[in-house]
Amino acid sequence: MTNAALTTENLAVTYTGNREVEAVKGVSLEFPENELTAIIGPSGCGKSTLLKSLNRLHEIQPNVEITGDVTLGGRSVYDTDEPVPELRKRIGYVPQKPTALPLSIYENVAYGLRIHGECESKAELDDRVESYLRKVNLWEEVEDRLDTPGAELSTGQIQRLCLARSLAVEPDVLLCDEVTSALDPISADQVEKTLESLKAEYTIVAVTHSMDQAKRLADEVVFLYLGELVEANDVRSFFENPQNERTREFVDGSRPVEDDDDSNSDSEPTTASVSPGR
Ligand SMILES: Nc1ncnc2c1ncn2[C@@H]1O[C@H](COP(=O)(O)OP(=O)(O)OP(=O)(O)O)[C@@H](O)[C@H]1O
């Protein structure tokens, strides 16, 4: 049985701007350690909002209210004195759009290590940079041009560079927000392979629009609909034996859920108590 690295407890997120939107409604989940949990669901169902609330990234926007809690290793990430930048070191975030810092390939990875004072010598820094570039399967492609700007890499290589940059501050958890959706199929495949290998060391939570990708990569799958948790289960059970009618319809494509705005549907969502793999 796996341990739960990260949990949400009755987590609710509401945007309170001109139009009030309950983007995430009372979601309780466990994200098991060293596994990849995919969050899927139709556009606008709250996937990114849920992901960003896991390391308080939604707080960079105004007019957002949150209730409930998120815990990492049993400790609240909200009810804590820990500075948010420290929290975000432990729970890293990789965005959809690959963006290199305006620095060399080397410095893109060394950046986090330098600002957190992680390395005592240049030799140690070199070793760490190489090890993270190896972890994301990029080292052999860039070892002879570490001083060139990161922005000169291909989009797929930049996405792997972003992953290396996230790893450089030694997170426990990686949050991946549709990290392959801006990539061509070959680059997407390379990033998928990288995520596959990173699962051994990191707890990964990945939002994806691709059910095929969730099938290939995920250990656990979470399905959201209109901000509610409908179903969460291990990947095999989720796709082969969905428990909820709405999941079944989403998985087999028998009903275009994007077009369905009827929140009074007969299909009751399974709420807070469902956890992946339980
Ligand atoms: N900053 C914001 N202010 C107000 N409403 C927002 C904001 N960000 C998101 N929303 C709304 O919250 C709901 C959930 O959005 P979110 O981006 O989390 O969904 P999503 O499932 O990730 O969508 P997509 O798959 O299209 O990226 C949507 O109704 C969206 O319009």
UniProtKB/TrEMBL annotation:
SUPFAM superfamilies: P-loop containing nucleoside triphosphate hydrolases. The keyword Plastid does not apply. One of its GO terms (cellular component) is membrane. Residues 243-257 have a biased composition (Basic and acidic residues). Keywords: ATP-binding, Cell membrane, Membrane, Nucleotide-binding. It holds the Pfam family ABC_tran. InterPro entries: AAA+_ATPase (IPR003593), ABC_transporter-like_ATP-bd (IPR003439), P-loop_NTPase (IPR027417), PstB-like (IPR005670). One of its GO terms (biological process) is phosphate ion transmembrane transport. Residues 243-278 are annotated as: Disordered. PANTHER family: ABC TRANSPORTER I FAMILY MEMBER 17. This is Phosphate ABC transporter ATP-binding protein. The lineage of its organism: Archaea, Methanobacteriati, Methanobacteriota, Stenosarchaea group, Halobacteria.
